[in-house]
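About this split. The held-out portion is used to measure sequence recovery: a designer receives only the structure tokens and must propose an amino acid at every position. Recovery is the fraction of positions where the proposal matches the reference. Here is one held-out target exactly as it appears in the evaluation file.
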């Protein structure tokens, strides 16, 4: 599933083409892409056509485009394999294309945003914008203190300027569950998925099964620092692509997979100590860590 770096790469790629653009027409090719828009395809189209896009915003793994009236936004969740692709307006259909949004930009002219999704777990919707609880900007890419109702329960991510480090440290240390499970709780901290959790824990030398309450404040702050470094490096390298399902708006793959130290390297030598990276089952997925330099600590 695309995580924060992959969704941010998409947002940054879309922004120059869609901000200040007018939505000229919308084609719904497969209504399965509108599972989050309960009013159906006709309502989805009617609420978008003729609207001007105000911004391109991201919080965690959610991406949205506030409309000019600042009461609604087009919100997207990429699911497992969703793609937002910029194309010429008359370009051939993408494989697995579900929705095409035709836009007219004052500088770039007519373009199309194609939403393609092989596994159909992603979705688009027109959603009401709500005031943020803390009065800060809703997400990365806009100063509007608004967030779609469907993303209002999602916590801020570690790269958000309004992220509260102290509250995060305190919340982690109150919990008795495994620290990796805590990191994947999108209501506590958003945007971190399996890949970047494994990488940050490896960098911080913390075992993924260590309980939150077993970590000192210094250890949690060190982990948070490593999370930020990993996310920033992945952003600089265009995200992580293991197959053709994650690409940027131009259809290009990211290359952070070549920089991974733990994730996907089960049985290989740890780049730090030479011990064997271990792969364990975890929440229908896998955890990758080095038992030698990520020793599990027990709560006192």
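Reference sequence for scoring:
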């Amino acid at each position: 599933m695309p995580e924060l770096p992959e969704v941010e790469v998409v947002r940054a790629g879309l922004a120059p083409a869609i901000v200040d653009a007018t939505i000229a027409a919308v084609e719904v090719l497969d209504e399965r892409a509108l599972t989050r828009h309960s009013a159906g395809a006709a309502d989805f189209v009617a609420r978008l056509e003729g609207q001007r896009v105000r911004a391109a915003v991201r919080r965690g793994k959610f991406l949205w485009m506030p409309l000019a009236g600042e009461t609604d936004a087009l919100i997207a969740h990429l699911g497992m394999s969703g793609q937002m692709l910029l194309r010429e307006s008359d370009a051939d259909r993408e494989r697995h294309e579900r929705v095409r949004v035709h836009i007219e930009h004052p500088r770039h002219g007519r373009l199309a945003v194609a939403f393609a999704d092989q596994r159909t777990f992603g979705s688009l919707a027109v959603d009401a914008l709500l005031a943020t609880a803390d009065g800060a900007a809703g997400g990365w890419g806009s100063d509007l203190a608004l967030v779609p109702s469907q993303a209002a329960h999602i916590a801020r991510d570690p790269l958000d300027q309004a992220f509260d480090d102290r509250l995060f440290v305190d919340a982690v240390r109150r919990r008795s569950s495994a620290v990796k499970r805590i990191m994947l709780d999108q209501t506590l901290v958003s945007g971190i998925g399996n890949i970047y959790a494994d990488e940050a824990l490896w960098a911080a030398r913390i075992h993924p099964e260590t309980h939150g309450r077993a970590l000192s404040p210094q250890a949690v702050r060190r982990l948070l620092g490593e999370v930020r470094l990993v996310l920033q490096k992945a952003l600089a390298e265009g995200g992580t692509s293991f197959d053709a399902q994650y690409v940027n708006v131009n259809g290009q793959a990211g290359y952070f997979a070549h920089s991974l130290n733990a994730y996907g390297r089960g049985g290989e030598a740890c780049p730090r100590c030479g011990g064997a990276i271990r792969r364990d089952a975890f929440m229908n997925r896998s955890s990758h860590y080095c038992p030698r330099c990520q020793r599990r600590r027990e709560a006192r």
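Annotator remark: The two ends are 36 Å apart (CA to CA).
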